[in-house]
Amino acid sequence: MTWVRVKLALEALEPGDVLEVHLKGDEPRRNLPRNARDDGHQVEPLTEHADGSATLVITVGAS
Amino acid sequence: MALSDPQVQRYSRQILLKEVGGRGQLRLLGAPFEVAGRGPELDVAVAYLAASGTPVRSPHAHGGFLAGVTLAEFAPDADTPGPVAGWLGPIDELSAAPVDLHRVGVGQGVVVSVRSGVPAPPSPSLRPQVRPDEGLSPQQATPSRPGERPFNGRPQSSERASPGVSPGPAAAQSLNPARTAAPSSLGSPGAAVAEGLKADEGAASTIHGLRPGDVAEPVSVGALAALLAQRVVLGLEPADVAVTRFSGGRWVREP
């Protein structure tokens, strides 16, 4: 469901806009960057935080 | 307008599809369908449409096969946008007259019309002629040939069957639905045709399915009709070009 919600958020943005996603858990860490790339978005490397969460920055691609 | 949280949960698998997404799902939710016709292909078409979130209703009656009961669990939410709040309407007597496509089409988006070309085979003929209360002896449950699994409407366990005991031809016939079905009720050789036409008025598009007298093909016709209708709604298919013909077991797109 994480990717579904991120996908919906990305759809609401314009190409070039940036979406910052805060993640917890291993599965979103693995899947989200890949899914976002597969959908044509630009993905920055994950930024890990001390509390175990991570931040993923996605730049909306032209679709 | 955005999808509600329950809608996101419910249609998440469709939203994941590249061809659908959130916007596509909103279009599916907001494109009410009216369906008219009879036969299992209509049930299939309506089931696919309703399960995808599309409000569906039938202005016409439906004889015998209407999916009103089976569709209950697929019925769109009451807060589904669009002028049609529910799903299939009351069941009346189906008019044999051709559907008034213009009337049902105007302002209603896509109209799916599934018409039967031959009488529907009675459902019981497709089932084994064994009443539920009739117990099967181990001999009857034994496959008539190695590798052949008799069907009696419930799971079979080869361990329960007595090996090496073959039923007679009559027993085999009563257990095999393919043999039990009367050939005359399934005997339409015709090809199924599903075509989409753009109605003269409004944004309506119609999809017809000429039902062959078979069991599997109506399912294909209904599924195809629903698929084509959804693709039209999603803008993946031109509203006036959606002609598909079933011939020789293969769907062939007309040029």
**Element string of chain B (H = helix, E = strand):** HHHEHEHEHHHEEHEE
Which radius of gyration of chain B do the C-alpha atoms yield?
21 Å
Summarize the largest interface: chains and residue counts: A-B, 9 and 11 residues
* Total beta-strand segments of chain A: 4
Give the biggest sheet of chain B. 7 strands, mixed
Number of helices of chain A: 2
Work out the strand percent of chain B.
5-15%
Stretches of chain A where pLDDT is under 50 for at least 5 consecutive residues are none
Q: Separation of termini of chain B?
A: 38 Å
The first-to-last residue Cα distance of chain A is 22 Å
Q: Radius of gyration of chain A, rounded? A: 11 Å
Mean pLDDT of chain A: 92
Number of helices of chain B: 9
- Name the helicity range of chain A: 25-40%
The percentage helix of chain B is 25-40%
Q: What is the spatial order of strands in the main beta sheet of chain B?
A: 2-1-3-5-4-6-7
What is the 3D shape of chain A? globular
Estimated share of beta-strand residues of chain A: 25-35%
The biggest sheet of chain A amounts to: 4 strands, antiparallel
Oligomeric grouping of the chains = heterodimer
Strand elements of chain B, count: 7
Short description:
The complex is a heterodimer of chains A (63) and B (255). With 63 residues, chain A is an alpha+beta fold. Chain A has helices at residues 2-11, 26-38; strands at residues 18-23, 42-43, 47-48, 54-59.
Descriptive labels:
heterodimer; A: 63 residues; alpha+beta; four-stranded antiparallel beta sheet; 2 helices; 4 strands; 37% helix; B: 255 residues; alpha/beta; seven-stranded mixed beta sheet; 7 strands; globular
Descriptive overview:
The complex is a heterodimer of chains A (63) and B (255). Chain A is of the alpha+beta class. Helix content of chain A is 37%, strand content 25%. In chain A, strands 1, 2, 3 and 4 form a four-stranded antiparallel beta sheet that branches. The two termini of chain A are 22 Å apart. The model of chain A has no long low-confidence stretch (mean pLDDT 92). Chain B is of the alpha/beta class and 255 residues long. Helix content of chain B is 27%, strand content 15%. Chain B has nine helices and seven strands. In chain B, helix 4 packs parallel to helix 9 (216-233). At the A-B interface, helix 1 of A face helix 2 and helix 3 of B.
